[in-house]
Amino acid sequence: MNYRKTMEYLDSLNGLGSRPGLENISELLTRLENPQNKVRAVHIAGTNGKGSVGAFLTSVLTMAGYRIGRYCSPAVFDPLETISFNGVNISEDDFARVITDTVSVCDENLCPTRFEIETAAAFMFFDRMKCDIAIVECGMGGELDATNVMSDVICSVITPVSMDHMSFLGDTIEKIAECKAGIIKPGVDVAAYKDERYSSVLTERAMQTQSDIYYIDDENIICNTGNNELVFSYRGYKDIRLNTPAAYQAMNGAIALEVVDRLRNKGYNLTDDIIRAGMYNMKWPGRFEILNDNKRMLILDGAHNPAGAAAFADSYRRLYGDEKSVIILAMFKDKDTRGVLEHIMPLADSVITTMAPDNPRSFPAKDLAEYIKKYYDIEVGYEADIYKAVSLAFDMAGENKVIACGSLAHLALVKEAYRKYGQR
């Protein structure tokens, strides 16, 4: 298949949805001669921050000269961003090739989901590229996630856990943490964010697997924000500069540094200068991403669950205090809408609801607007067309900022619409 046909084929699988469990992916990988066992990996689970931690690690390790593969999801701005090598997205030709090779071993007895196919293809690509380390993020959960099939994991990472995907992972924070802890392998070091609500679950799993667990505690993170960058310290790492003003990236950066320490202890050559440069050079679009053409400012952030929304709101207030913005809001119907609004609405001067097109999970723009009006006395409009929603938001904003949040699914179109609006 060429790239176009490959994408058409993958899109045709979207209706299968998510299917937690390892039977399908294990059989698929067996037919592909188990590429997942031919590369060392850092495995990352958690509710929020997986992508940022993976981006930090990729930047540092690539700068140190290692051959680094990375697998993450979901794609936000480009379908190819889920699989990368040394920080560069896989090419269309390579993507089509590994997907075609993966699908070629399927038959009527093996019908994997899109995520299972892309996961297997990523492992195959990393093997072909002779990666020194693959940075692999769970799609959802951990124990039964399709990525949880690797035999040579050098560090397991648990980023902050919160209430999300409850229909799949459980209805308490402890049950969700237990699912995430399922990626912890016997004798493998663990770097985990410390949260008293569930850390005992992670500690118990580490004891069962005889794994050393290293907790990242907020008390050990000192953070200062400026207009365009953030400076933080964590344990022995002093004044680490990040090319983002988002305060929540200090925590993600600290988790990455804890993983770096585990790798240094295993003999990886990561000097202080390389670590500092790699941390600063990390780029992760759509996470407190600021676009500013000197006339209009747009801030993009997923903020798609209550914990993510709270982190975004905290970062916003550190920079802008009580200043209000026009908010372009899109959400999925299966998310905790009320929980997200609790943190986002205090930032709003007014709200325009919109929706990601052609996505059955999208909360219809009109319905979302009506939902907000039930709980908040604020100006709320709706526009299902994202381009029109962006235009309307900036017309309303005047000199104020505009925030686009609530989901990652609509950010690519919002960014494109912003650029077109600036050309008027």
Outline of the structure:
The protein has 424 residues and is an alpha/beta fold. It has helices at residues 3-12, 23-31, 50-63, 92-103, 114-128, 166-169, 173-181, 199-208, 248-265, 272-281, 306-320, 337-344, 365-375, 386-397, 411-422; strands at 41-45, 68-71, 83-85, 88-89, 133-137, 153-158, 190-193, 213-216, 221-225, 230-234, 237-242, 289-292, 297-300, 325-329, 348-353, 379-382, 402-405.
Topology, element by element:
Blueprint: H1 3-12, H2 23-31, E1 41-45, H3 50-63, E2 68-71, E3 83-85, E4 88-89, H4 92-103, H5 114-128, E5 133-137, E6 153-158, H6 166-169, H7 173-181, E7 190-193, H8 199-208, E8 213-216, E9 221-225, E10 230-234, E11 237-242, H9 248-265, H10 272-281, E12 289-292, E13 297-300, H11 306-320, E14 325-329, H12 337-344, E15 348-353, H13 365-375, E16 379-382, H14 386-397, E17 402-405, H15 411-422
Parallel strand pairs: 1-5, 1-6, 2-5, 6-7, 7-8, 13-17, 14-15, 14-17, 15-16
Antiparallel strand pairs: 2-3, 3-4, 9-10, 10-11, 12-13
Helix pairs in contact: 1-4, 2-5, 3-9, 3-10, 4-5, 7-8, 11-12, 14-15
